[in-house]
Amino acid sequence: MNFNTKYLPILIFATLALGVVLGGMLNFPNTADYLVNNNSKNKLNKLIDFIDNEYVDDVNTDSIVNLTVDNILAKLDPHSVYIPPSDQQEVMESMKGNFVGIGVNFYMYKDSVAVIKPVENGPSAKAGIKAGDRILYADKTKLFGRKLPSDSLYSKLKGTVGSNIELTIYRKSEGKRLKVKIKRDVIPLKSVDVALLLSNKTGYIKINRFSETTYSEFMSGLIKLKHQGANSLIIDVRDNGGGYMEEAIAIADELLTDKQLIVFTKNKNGNIDKTFATAKGNFEKRNVFILINENTASASEILAGAVQDNDRGTIVGRRSFGKGLVQREMNFADGSAVRLTIARYYTPTGRSIQKPYSKGNEAYFKESEARFGNGELYEKDSIKVSDTIKFKTKKGKIVYGGGGIVPDVFVPLEVEHGNESAAYLLQSGIVGNFVFEQLDKHRSTFKGLSFNQFKTKMTKTDFYFNAFEKFIFGNGLDLNFRKSKALVKRYLAAEFARQLYGESYYYQIVLKEDAMVKKVLNQK
């Protein structure tokens, strides 16, 4: 596996940006099936039947239909998409905020299903499954030595609530096989990663997407932080590709006062639907900061736009993605679905933040990659905005439409000595894979360490930094991390903390030197 490292930031950036596409579903009622009456629509149906009945070779007409649907939607806009049955269930589970299973995070290590960490208080944790265990069999099905794809593994481990499964595991630390019976249960898929205090008075909440459970997760975190004394709040929606609009609106309502406009939509007939804040808000008078970046999109931009246009708080970071289109979903009997753009949304000042897509889908998504080249990820003055899409808030602040939310306080891409490749790589899944493999070899060296002892250990040693360099080189990436040593060691320590202690400990390490967080804390 060989890469040209010149293009590595763009490759990793494109992977992160995929969340913008997958996260762009907004919560509108499913539409009913439409009647097929006119000749053009009948022509397509007749052609498919003709091929099905008469074509000389066997043809999978379903694949033809799927291709046709994809081609039709590609002529519309970048966010009108077809979702095949194989993807739709996973997408819906993510947006619902839970699924039924055994509750483990796993990693295909070599030819085995290795447990990274059982979900806290989940079925596997209660049954005694431990980090590092190998799952050899699920009931009678052999899982090792087969290099099964992830969807096959999921199907073996998922099931109905209350159903039983017997796992045969190998516990490396004890050198023995065990049989463990587990009763499947509902496993939450958190959309709020963490809610913690960064200082005595400043709370921090990280939202990774807007699912059905996001508002309730957010409120649980907010109430906890208020009880701990927070009178200022940082809401982090960096790399949040969106989700259900209603969840973002509900969070905005907690920040805005009665009758302030949150968002409005306009459909093809010019019908306008406005949504206003209500009298009940839990954080209406205290300081609010929203962190955004180039992968912040859709529902995340609704939240940021509502806060910015109402002069309610400060938007910190880099220009957001620029998705201002509203989708409605239509489901089909085979489990597939189509999301069709049915309206545009506008921030309270009346601006559309949808970036242009007239040059086609490929150019549309490459616009985000082009921000590396035009310099806007590093200098605010490089952000190109047009005076024709200039708006004013009630307090006279200038805001712009036409392509994302421009932050009030700009923070450049976190780069140490120009090594943006390292900055993006460290936020990818490859770091988690490396850390798991290291723990699999050296887990006993961390046994019994308090978190503070752990931090001291990781600060003093370069062992894992050196091992990570070798790991990266062995995976075909010729990168020199020496100029970014402090950055690399911080992210490695954070990932070790996540796998050893839990999610909040990851953020306690990462956020300490986070450029946007430091900007907020220093300006207060």
TrEMBL record:
GO BP, one annotated term: proteolysis
Xref: Pfam families: PDZ_2, Peptidase_S41
Keywords: Hydrolase, Protease, Serine protease
Keyword Protease belongs to the record: yes
Domain PDZ: 98-173
Recorded superkingdom: Bacteria
Protein family: Belongs to the peptidase S41A family.
NCBIfam families (alphabetical): prc (TIGR00225)
The name this protein goes by in its record: Carboxyl-terminal processing protease
Naturally occurring in which organism (per UniProt): Flavobacterium xueshanense
Upper classification of the organism: Bacteria, Pseudomonadati, Bacteroidota, Flavobacteriia, Flavobacteriales
